């Protein structure tokens, strides 16, 4: 148990052996132990800033917006289009980074843009198939009704 306390200085020591524990950690860890790693929130914010500052960020944002527009009502799609316009106009001018400075991040950005593009295609496929099916049905109904009569007329001759 003492080893656990000496590994991570943030773990509190409770109970009766508090003085003994502090002495043991002073011997095991010493005063020259490395500082604890930064909290995950700081690391997350740093990663977000690096992604937002990457030159491919406008492409990533555009691909994300395109995914969100699939199947959205026209009003929502128009709103999403408006949201994406400032990024497209700036053309990445807001991005301060350069491609090649962080090859791992460059690879991530390219892969994620490609992934979002494929995801949009997969999302769109059922909607495109449904639209095609409905167009075919409408055409067949028009042909059955003789072209002149509408499907909603009560005396179209179809029982």
Gap from first CA to last CA: 84 Å
Structural class: mainly alpha
Largest sheet: none
Shape: elongated
The count of β-strands is 0
Beta-strand percent range: under 5%
- Taken together, the total number of domains comes to 2
Helix content: 55-70%
Mean pLDDT across the residues is 75
SSE topology string: HHHHHH
Q: Which radius of gyration do the C-alpha atoms yield?
A: 30 Å
Can you offer a commentary on this structure?
There is one protein chain. The protein folds into two domains: 1-36, no CATH class; 40-143, no CATH class. It starts with a helix and ends in a 15-residue tail after the last helix. The model is unreliable at 1-30 (pLDDT under 50). With 159 residues, it is mainly alpha-helical. The chain has six helices and no strands. The longest helix is centred in the last third of the chain and has 42 residues, at 103-144. Helix 4 (57-69) packs antiparallel against helix 5 and helix 4 (57-69) runs parallel beside helix 6. It is elongated and about 90 Å long. 64% of the residues lie in helices and 0% in strands.
Keywords:
single chain, 159 residues, mainly alpha, 2 domains, 6 helices, KNOX1, KNOX2, nucleus, DNA binding
Summarize the model shown.
Its main location: nucleus. The chain is mainly α. The protein is 64% helix and 0% strand.
